[in-house]
Amino acid sequence: MNIESFFPKDIKTALEKNPPGAWMSAVPDGCIRLNSGYPATGLVPAAEIKSASARLLDEEKDLPLHYLGSPRIDKLKEQIQERLGSRGMHAESDELLITAGACQAIDLIARILLDAQAVVAVEAPTYMEALEVFQNYTSQIISIPIDDKGLETEQLETVLAERKKNGLTLPRLVYTIPNFQNPTGTTMSSDRREHLLALSKTYDFLILEDDAYGELSFGEIPQTLKAMDTDDRVLHVGSLSKVVAPGMRIGWIAGSSQFIPSLAWFKKDLDHPFVQSIMAAYLEQVNLEQRTKQLKDKYSEKCTRLINALEQYLSDQASWYVPEGGYFVWVKIPGVNTTNMLPYALNAGVAYVPGQYFFMNQEEGTEYLRLSFSYADEREIEKGVQILGEVVKETL
Ligand SMILES: Cc1ncc(COP(=O)(O)O)c(C=O)c1O
């Protein structure tokens, strides 16, 4: 018996793609991890989370461990509403859904909006796990380039106009990461944000605004698309992975009350009430504003260290965008195939993510790589870039 013969056609098609996480290379012990897009051990508040869980169980006994969970789940929703409100995003209770991380939020939105006939537009390059999710639902993915001001909305408009003229299906959804984009670190200009919102009305699409890094701005936090939206077209996805702990899997979707119940319908019990109540208890006892400020200062220092090291060791061979927040620096090395170079870099002691994985058309990413300053410490960052510089010079 072949179990796969039971799978529906769409599932079989999706399973023909690269398996999830194919971009995550095995990193040898001792290698400097400039590939890892997650916080360093010391930046995860393990002790505080331990005390929050103990306090929760002391106060509520077994309650948080049941299906319905603790009343603190509602509290978490209020805490998130407050944070959204402080950034100009108003969300009533029926306009907000807590999810198991931003990833579940993206998957739920894709599940509700996309089928094999649907078209989705994404930035090129973009977050590779979102590409994996969209490809589970449709193969009709249009890539729109990105530059130092974010998604090139002028190009999007050209594509939309062409498709309309030729009677082709228009996108139902545009996926964008306007703040400190993964992988490029770029931020969408406010003119382009306005343009994108105007296009969404003209061409009648919804916008999935992935704001996973939005709070990690080294300066002013830019105004979100959601805060600028007057037509309920933006589904704003956020996460506490980058400011608290990714393993807790707490994210959300803020959007129209016409849309949120449909997402809740399919989410069912696929999130984690116990962890949500721990998060609420943690947020009760911590000053998140202050913690975020500390994280931003730390990441800003680490980013500067990475940029300075690139100037020192790779300025003749490579170019890059200087991010204003987030975790990543996107580096272009003309004449180098970064996928082929990776084994040499790993062997020499530094890991990065080759650019190809962030594109639908992987060839577009050949000369790019993503470096992250979130995980490695300052000394490792500098050493890692020095090693990378040597490997690049040997490769060229
Ligand atoms: C752009 C982007 N969106 C979403 C996520 C996933 O976030 P979460 O851990 O909340 O699922 C990440 C994580 O790296 C990301 O880079």
Automatic annotation (TrEMBL):
InterPro entries: Aminotransferase_I/II_large, Class-I_PLP-dep_aminotransf, PyrdxlP-dep_Trfase, PyrdxlP-dep_Trfase_major, PyrdxlP-dep_Trfase_small. It is an enzyme of class 2 (transferase). Its EC number is 2.6.1.-. Residues 31-386 form the Aminotransferase class I/classII large domain. One of its GO terms (molecular function) is transaminase activity. Its cofactor is pyridoxal 5'-phosphate. Keywords: Aminotransferase, Pyridoxal phosphate, Transferase. This is 2-aminoadipate transaminase. It comes from Cytobacillus purgationiresistens.
